[in-house]
Amino acid sequence: MTGKTAGLPELGFDPKAAELFxxxxxxxxxxxxxxxxxxxxxxxxxxxxxxxxxxGRMGLHPLNTRIFLDAATAGGxxxxxxxxxxxxxxxxQYLLRKSPVFLGGMLYNSRYYWLDGLDQMAEQIKKxxxxxQEPKVTEDxxxxxxxxxxxxSQRMMITSLAIEAARQVPGHENFQKILxxxxxxxxxxxxxxxxxxxxxxxxxxQPGVVREAGKYIKSEGLEARFxxxxxxxxxxxxxxxxxxxxxxxxxxFARHDLKAMMKRILEALKPGGVFINLHEGxxxxxxxxxxxxxxxxxxxxxxxxxMMFQKGELARAMAEVGFDPIxxxxxxxxxxxxxxxxxxxxxx
Length: 348
Ligand SMILES: C[S@@+](CC[C@H](N)C(=O)[O-])C[C@H]1O[C@@H](n2cnc3c(N)ncnc32)[C@H](O)[C@@H]1O
Fold this sequence. Notes:
This is O-methyltransferase. The protein is 45% helix and 17% strand. It has helices at residues 2-6, 15-38, 51-58, 62-74, 89-94, 104-114, 121-127, 139-166, 187-195, 207-220, 258-268, 290-295, 297-301, 313-321; strands spanning 49-50, 78-81, 84-87, 177-181, 200-205, 226-230, 242-248, 269-280, 326-332, 337-344. The protein has a seven-stranded mixed β-sheet, sandwiched between helices. The protein has a three-stranded antiparallel β-sheet with strand order 1-3-2. S-adenosylmethionine is lined by residues 150, 153-154, 158, 182-184, 205-206, 209, 232-234, 248-250, 253.
């Protein structure tokens, strides 16, 4: 018997075939993450804890708690030693509410946009958009979670990028007035105001969002140097005489008339002022970057507005209204590849 099996050819596994099996369990891994967040299980696993102890503490089913915790360990969220489970370091960093870079709320909310309705994909391809199920949350709770998620991503990657970009502008030492357009909780605008010590700043966003942003401004102690304006940036005047206007991932809401939006931004700047904009730039005929394309699949099938710009689309709209010069570069973030534009208002 041994002699016979020894003579068999080696089984060759194509890594691409293995990838297909991995893909089949990928949604389970995502759902383990979302369930851990929903039940706030990670909040209880900063220190080692057994399944029985956790189930007792949280009023859960003991056997299914153990099964879930084993899966969360297999899925790369926890470590298990003897009978005890504990969060891995990145879970403590990004998935605990007390963390300044808590991403859990934003990830949990993305579920509606990225994952809910996956089982209707085939039907929507056959028949077209099906009615969406709106998330069931109050408006205030929605703004709160949105700002919390945006605050985490701003702290993690956008504020340092904004400061670095602004420091490339000649005369940045003299910035007096800065606008954070569509800035959510406003951490980017506040970081810029802190960097350029003589500057004052304004956050312009929807009224519910600036209400929420007020808490962040207070906690930074910047009330005297950083104001808010609530309104609709597609129609309302954001003020005048800015040296720097920063906008990131928000101009899709103005894409129905991009030229008018760019004109409003140009008018709001001082002569010689700069508009710095960060956004996705789709390439390869709408098939790249993959994270951006895949995350928008379900909302696009549901017929919701296209949230992406084509590479170079915003720079063209800037040039059309008179920004000159316009410098563009690509920026890699943990999420996707972005385009960053520095667009100058010509001196009078
Ligand atoms: C994806 S978030 C980006 C936030 C922030 N710029 C960042 O990069 O973290 C889009 C922001 O645009 C704001 N926004 C969308 N439409 C708007 C409108 N018509 N007027 C004012 N703000 C708007 C939203 O409230 C939200 O804060």
